[in-house]
Amino acid sequence: EDDEEEGENDHDHDHDAHAGGEAHVHGAAELAVTLDGTFVTVTIDAPLANFGLSEKTKKKASEMEQYADGLTELMGDAHCDIAERSAEIRRNGDHAALTLSIAWDCRRPSQLDGLMFTGFETYEGFETVEAVYLGEDEQSAAVLTPGNPFLPF
Asked: pTM for the complete prediction?
């Protein structure tokens, strides 16, 4: 397998200012949660390195869906079942990022308390997650860290 961690010295260049304009910071991620009726959709966008993968990996997007497992946990007594999940790999020069989407169908969405980002425990590459929740009547945002992994709804 060539999903070995890249050496630390490969990353002396500035990740924020390369062509394409997309910030690419190892350890950082973005997470969005939307509630629409009974459906909760969680989208996570992070560099492949956060998952311990080489950015040169040749894996297909369909093989990456498994990385959604162990990333998030819905909190509350909402009785949610996974309805769908998908993965997309974006490449930009020698950088690559993974976007995962997980959709749950919840029988009691009003009982949702929030989301726990369990990816800090599953993948040691995650350091900070900028998270936002968009509900039907409210929204919230938080920067999640290993010491504060909870996004309240």
From this structure: 0.81
Give the integer Cα–Cα distance in Å for 132 and 152. Answer: 10
Which strands make up the sheet holding 28-36, listed edge to edge? 80-92, 95-106, 39-47, 28-36, 128-134, 139-144
Among residues 5, 31, 11, which one has the least CA distance to residue 150? 31
Task: Tell me the DSSP string of 108-125.
Answer: -GGGEEEEEETHHHH-TT
Q: Answer yes or no: is pLDDT of 4 > 60.
A: no
Q: Quote the Cα angle for 53-57-60, to 5°.
A: 110
What confidence category does residue 10 fall into, taking pLDDT thresholds of 50, 70 and 90? very low
